[in-house]
Amino acid sequence: MRLFIGIPLPREYQLVLESIREEWSDAFKSKLSWTKPGNWHLTLKFLGDTPEERLPGLKKIITDLEFGSFFIQGSGAGFFGSKGVYRVIWLGLKNDVHSLISLAEMIDQNLADLGFEREKRPFKGHLTLARIKYFHRKDPWNELTDYISKLDWPDFEVKEVVLWQSILSRSGPEYKVIRKTAV
Question: What DSSP character marks residue 58?
Fold first, then answer.
Protein backbone atom coordinates (compact mmCIF):
# COMPACT_ATOMS: atom_id res chain seq x y z
CA MET A 1 0.00 0.00 0.00
CA ARG A 2 1.30 3.47 -0.90
CA LEU A 3 0.67 5.64 2.17
CA PHE A 4 1.19 9.16 3.48
CA ILE A 5 0.11 11.25 6.46
CA GLY A 6 -1.15 14.77 5.98
CA ILE A 7 -3.56 17.58 6.68
CA PRO A 8 -6.64 18.11 4.51
CA LEU A 9 -7.15 21.60 3.10
CA PRO A 10 -10.39 23.54 3.51
CA ARG A 11 -12.74 24.03 0.58
CA GLU A 12 -11.72 27.67 0.02
CA TYR A 13 -8.12 26.55 -0.58
CA GLN A 14 -9.23 23.80 -2.93
CA LEU A 15 -11.20 26.36 -4.98
CA VAL A 16 -8.39 28.93 -5.17
CA LEU A 17 -5.83 26.26 -6.09
CA GLU A 18 -8.12 24.94 -8.81
CA SER A 19 -8.53 28.46 -10.24
CA ILE A 20 -4.71 28.89 -10.34
CA ARG A 21 -4.45 25.61 -12.22
CA GLU A 22 -7.14 26.62 -14.73
CA GLU A 23 -5.72 30.11 -15.26
CA TRP A 24 -2.06 29.15 -15.65
CA SER A 25 -1.97 25.65 -17.13
CA ASP A 26 -1.93 26.89 -20.76
CA ALA A 27 0.71 29.58 -20.10
CA PHE A 28 3.65 27.16 -20.11
CA LYS A 29 5.64 25.27 -22.73
CA SER A 30 6.99 23.14 -19.87
CA LYS A 31 5.08 19.98 -19.13
CA LEU A 32 3.38 20.51 -15.76
CA SER A 33 1.57 17.84 -13.82
CA TRP A 34 -0.82 19.90 -11.72
CA THR A 35 -2.21 18.39 -8.56
CA LYS A 36 -5.67 17.04 -9.27
CA PRO A 37 -8.51 19.24 -7.92
CA GLY A 38 -9.64 17.96 -4.55
CA ASN A 39 -6.31 16.20 -3.92
CA TRP A 40 -4.47 19.19 -2.46
CA HIS A 41 -3.26 18.52 1.06
CA LEU A 42 -0.32 19.31 3.29
CA THR A 43 1.96 16.27 3.55
CA LEU A 44 3.46 15.66 6.98
CA LYS A 45 5.15 12.34 6.16
CA PHE A 46 5.31 10.27 2.98
CA LEU A 47 5.58 6.58 3.83
CA GLY A 48 5.60 5.15 0.33
CA ASP A 49 5.00 1.46 -0.31
CA THR A 50 4.15 -0.03 3.06
CA PRO A 51 3.35 -3.66 3.85
CA GLU A 52 -0.25 -4.15 4.97
CA GLU A 53 0.87 -5.80 8.22
CA ARG A 54 2.18 -2.38 9.37
CA LEU A 55 -1.30 -0.86 9.11
CA PRO A 56 -2.45 -1.61 12.70
CA GLY A 57 0.56 0.26 14.15
CA LEU A 58 0.03 3.20 11.77
CA LYS A 59 -3.67 3.40 12.63
CA LYS A 60 -2.79 3.42 16.34
CA ILE A 61 -0.32 6.30 15.85
CA ILE A 62 -3.01 8.36 14.11
CA THR A 63 -5.70 7.43 16.66
CA ASP A 64 -3.44 8.25 19.63
CA LEU A 65 -2.07 11.48 18.16
CA GLU A 66 -2.58 14.39 20.55
CA PHE A 67 -2.07 17.98 19.46
CA GLY A 68 -3.77 21.32 19.92
CA SER A 69 -5.37 23.00 16.93
CA PHE A 70 -3.48 25.88 15.34
CA PHE A 71 -3.79 28.25 12.39
CA ILE A 72 -1.67 28.45 9.26
CA GLN A 73 -2.01 30.47 6.08
CA GLY A 74 -0.69 30.31 2.53
CA SER A 75 2.14 32.76 1.91
CA GLY A 76 4.62 33.09 -0.91
CA ALA A 77 5.47 30.63 -3.63
CA GLY A 78 8.56 29.09 -5.09
CA PHE A 79 10.22 26.11 -6.67
CA PHE A 80 12.18 23.04 -5.68
CA GLY A 81 14.87 21.89 -8.06
CA SER A 82 18.57 22.09 -8.72
CA LYS A 83 20.93 23.76 -11.16
CA GLY A 84 18.26 26.26 -12.24
CA VAL A 85 15.85 23.51 -13.35
CA TYR A 86 12.59 23.55 -11.43
CA ARG A 87 10.87 20.28 -10.49
CA VAL A 88 8.05 21.40 -8.16
CA ILE A 89 5.95 24.56 -7.79
CA TRP A 90 4.93 25.13 -4.15
CA LEU A 91 2.88 27.45 -1.95
CA GLY A 92 4.58 28.43 1.30
CA LEU A 93 2.95 28.77 4.72
CA LYS A 94 3.00 31.26 7.59
CA ASN A 95 1.40 31.92 11.00
CA ASP A 96 1.84 29.07 13.49
CA VAL A 97 4.42 27.20 11.42
CA HIS A 98 6.22 26.25 14.65
CA SER A 99 3.21 24.11 15.69
CA LEU A 100 3.13 22.56 12.21
CA ILE A 101 6.82 21.65 12.45
CA SER A 102 6.30 20.23 15.97
CA LEU A 103 3.40 18.09 14.71
CA ALA A 104 5.47 16.76 11.79
CA GLU A 105 8.41 15.99 14.11
CA MET A 106 6.13 14.20 16.61
CA ILE A 107 4.72 12.04 13.81
CA ASP A 108 8.22 11.35 12.49
CA GLN A 109 9.37 10.24 15.97
CA ASN A 110 6.30 8.05 16.51
CA LEU A 111 6.89 6.39 13.14
CA ALA A 112 10.58 5.88 13.95
CA ASP A 113 9.45 4.01 17.07
CA LEU A 114 7.56 1.69 14.67
CA GLY A 115 10.68 1.15 12.57
CA PHE A 116 10.13 3.74 9.82
CA GLU A 117 13.18 5.72 8.75
CA ARG A 118 13.47 9.25 10.22
CA GLU A 119 13.51 12.21 7.86
CA LYS A 120 17.04 13.33 7.01
CA ARG A 121 16.10 16.94 6.29
CA PRO A 122 14.15 19.33 8.51
CA PHE A 123 10.42 19.54 7.75
CA LYS A 124 9.49 22.43 5.42
CA GLY A 125 5.74 22.88 5.29
CA HIS A 126 4.42 23.63 1.81
CA LEU A 127 1.62 22.74 -0.57
CA THR A 128 2.72 21.13 -3.84
CA LEU A 129 0.84 22.82 -6.69
CA ALA A 130 2.46 21.04 -9.64
CA ARG A 131 5.34 18.79 -10.60
CA ILE A 132 7.39 19.82 -13.62
CA LYS A 133 8.01 16.91 -15.97
CA TYR A 134 9.79 18.90 -18.68
CA PHE A 135 11.35 22.30 -17.86
CA HIS A 136 11.40 25.18 -20.35
CA ARG A 137 13.53 28.05 -19.01
CA LYS A 138 11.64 30.85 -20.81
CA ASP A 139 8.24 30.10 -19.27
CA PRO A 140 6.62 32.77 -17.02
CA TRP A 141 7.94 31.28 -13.76
CA ASN A 142 8.37 34.57 -11.88
CA GLU A 143 4.99 35.85 -13.01
CA LEU A 144 3.33 32.72 -11.66
CA THR A 145 5.00 32.94 -8.24
CA ASP A 146 4.24 36.69 -8.05
CA TYR A 147 0.59 35.97 -8.84
CA ILE A 148 0.33 33.21 -6.22
CA SER A 149 2.12 35.32 -3.60
CA LYS A 150 -0.28 38.26 -4.07
CA LEU A 151 -3.42 36.18 -3.53
CA ASP A 152 -5.30 36.72 -0.28
CA TRP A 153 -4.88 33.35 1.42
CA PRO A 154 -7.18 32.94 4.44
CA ASP A 155 -6.10 31.47 7.77
CA PHE A 156 -7.25 27.93 8.27
CA GLU A 157 -7.39 25.87 11.41
CA VAL A 158 -5.40 22.65 11.51
CA LYS A 159 -7.49 20.29 13.61
CA GLU A 160 -7.26 16.99 11.76
CA VAL A 161 -4.52 14.60 10.62
CA VAL A 162 -5.21 11.86 8.08
CA LEU A 163 -3.50 8.62 7.07
CA TRP A 164 -4.20 8.28 3.33
CA GLN A 165 -3.65 5.54 0.82
CA SER A 166 -2.55 6.82 -2.60
CA ILE A 167 -3.88 4.59 -5.35
CA LEU A 168 -2.08 5.32 -8.61
CA SER A 169 -4.03 5.26 -11.87
CA ARG A 170 -3.65 6.60 -15.41
CA SER A 171 -5.74 9.66 -14.50
CA GLY A 172 -3.56 10.43 -11.46
CA PRO A 173 -3.59 9.36 -7.83
CA GLU A 174 -6.81 8.70 -5.95
CA TYR A 175 -6.66 9.22 -2.18
CA LYS A 176 -8.50 6.96 0.24
CA VAL A 177 -8.78 7.83 3.93
CA ILE A 178 -7.48 4.96 6.07
CA ARG A 179 -7.69 6.68 9.49
CA LYS A 180 -8.03 10.22 10.78
CA THR A 181 -7.85 11.97 14.10
CA ALA A 182 -9.12 15.36 15.17
CA VAL A 183 -8.54 17.61 18.17
Answer: H
| CATH number of the structural domain spanning residue 34 | 3.90.1140.10
Q: Which domain holds residue 169?
A: 2-182
Which uninterrupted H or E stretch holds 97? helix 97-113
CB 50, CB 169: distance < 8 Å: no
Strand partners for 6: 43, 162
Catalytic residues: 41, 126
Burial class (CB in 10 A: 0-12, 13-18, 19+), 57: middle
State the Cα–Cα distance between residues 126 and 93, nearest whole angstrom: 6
* Residue at 24: amino acid letter: W
Total domain count, the chain? 1
Closest CA to 44 of 166, 173, 175, 164: 164
Task: Give the H or E element holding residue 119.
Answer: none
Q: 25-51: per-residue pLDDT in tens?
A: 899 999 999 988 788 899 999 999 999
Give every residue of the chain whose pLDDT is below 50, as ranges. Answer: none
Q: What is the CA radius of gyration of the chain?
A: 17
